[in-house]
Amino acid sequence: MIDHAIRLFKEYHEKNQNGVVLSSGSVKLLNSLLCSCILAKKYDEVKRVFVNFTKSYTIEPSLDTYNTVIQAFSEGGSSSSCYSVLNEMDKKGVKPNATTFGNLIAGFYKEEKFEDVGKVLKMMEEDYGINAGIDIYNIRIRSLCKLKRSKEAEALLGGCIARGVKPKAVTYRYLIFGFCKEGNLEGAKSLFKSMVNRGCKPDYYCYSTLINFLSKGRDFESAYRICKESMEKKLVPNFPTMKMLVEGLANSGNVEKAKELIGEIKEKFSKNVDLWNEVEAGLPQ
Q: Which residue ranges contain the repeat PPR (predicted)?
């Protein structure tokens, strides 16, 4: 597919260039091609296409172009190469934005180059005047959770709040998932409670993640309580998660609560009614 996209790109430009600098549409086509390479995880191809095509077809890279190249280096394990991209941007007069640095920070976290993370954050704020907003914090928190360093991510959340940056539901979602993956269900429940107390509304993924892991951890009472809350907001986890909770409640002696949940689901949501009838028929009597 990438070979086909590159061939079409070349054919288009060879047909339309006629020895002149092409319009901004060429930059958009180039950016689309670079994104396609990333989707295919052809990170080396991103570098080749960027270097060769901008020269061969006299295309001036845009901010989106540079951001895509930095994303490719970061995802491909070559984050240090991004410094040269930043240098080129400076020479071309293209100012980086939060997305530029967010991609770079994510890459350095992935490679566990924590000193470089600090270096980039300092560069971002002192050299370019870009303050770390919630999107940058979310990238950092998500990255730490992926590395199973969720306690550090929680501390970072505290720093975020102290700086007056307001967390979003997705911020807590990353943390809750991270704590759950590390088996710290009590920590995940505490985060969920803190989230609600701070006036941040849990989204579908916050609820479903916590209910799923609590059910796997056999904390069916907590899962049931959080599930009831989510259902009041018409945020119902997927069928496998709900089935695990219902059967867990029934098998731990809470048949009535299990049937109550099934009844509410069937009453409010017509989807999967037949499947729920089968589940209910199989519950202990």
A: 62-96, 133-167, 168-202, 203-237
Which CATH number covers residue 262?
1.25.40.10
The per-residue pLDDT for range 208-240, each reduced to its tens digit, is 999 999 999 999 999 999 999 999 999 989 999
Other Cβ atoms less than 10 A from the Cβ of 279: the count is 18
Residues 6+ apart with CB under 8 A from 221: 254
Question: Which DSSP letter does residue 124 get?
Answer: I
Backbone angles phi, psi at 130, to 5 degrees: -105, 115
Which domain does 59 fall in, by range? 1-9+26-81
Provide the angle, in degrees to the nearest 10, between the axes of the packed helices 220-232 and 204-216: 160
By the 8 A CB rule, do 78 and 49 touch?
A: no
Please tell me the distance from the alpha carbon of residue 270 to that of residue 251, in angstroms, as a whole number.
25
Which residue has 């907003």 as its token pair? 133
Quick: pLDDT tens for 249-261.
999 999 999 999 9
Six-digit token pair at 115? 């000193």
Q: pTM (2 decimals)?
A: 0.89
Whole-number Cα distances in Å, 232 to 70, 133, 138, 202: 43, 32, 28, 13
Which of 267, 264, 262 lies closest to 279, judged by CA? Answer: 262
Would 268 be classed as within a structural domain?
yes
For 184-200, letters b (16+ CB in 10 Å) and e give: bbebbbebbebbeeeeb
- How does DSSP classify residue 123? I
The encoded tokens of residue 231 equal: 């259902």
